[in-house]
Protein: Reticulon-like protein
Organism: Davidia involucrata
Amino acid sequence: NRTMSIIYSSDTEDDKKPSPKLFDRRRSIHQILGGGKVADVLLWNDKRASAALLAGIAVIWFLFEVVEYNLVSLLCHIFITTMLVLFIWRTGAEIFKWRAPGIPETILDDSTFREFASISQEKFNQFLSKVLYIACGNDLKLFLLTNVSLWILSVIGNYISTVNLLFFGLLCLETLPFLYYQYEEQVDNLAGRVNRQMRQTYKKFDSEFLQKIPRGPVKEKKTR
């Protein structure tokens, strides 16, 4: 019929359009991640730092989940091991004329700390602003989607330990941006096709079922 032809013609026109960026973003993925060293690590532009971070996450997960270390015990053992290694190194350097371990005046550079603090503050403020916007009901669909997602996450949390959930989240943070960065065009095209298919399915469902539901006459309010 005419309605269906209009639907399919509009979908055909949409297929000819270039696929938009994922989430209709205007900035590059590097800029969205804050730019600088943080984005370089998450996108594996600095392969050594990214690999070290991933290895550290895996080691921490292994110690907490497999070895079942307690946080306080783990920190104490790390400090004890570090102090023993430095003590033996320092003592051996005096006896065997080795090079003594140097004690740097600054462990963390000021610019790096300021950059990390600035990005964290900006992202945290954006997160709070978005939460308040959703919670006030300004976007009803997003409000319902957020609550359903949180409920699903709470159900998953009953079957997965907090350590495993955090490890999975950090693993996704370390790998998904990099994979999207490498295959950005393919992912955008796939997301565009899925979005068009979902819209086509909804339009078909609306025309074949929702539009055919009989609606009663609207009753006029009696005025006194």
Notes: The chain has a mean pLDDT of 78. The first helix runs from residue 2 to 16.
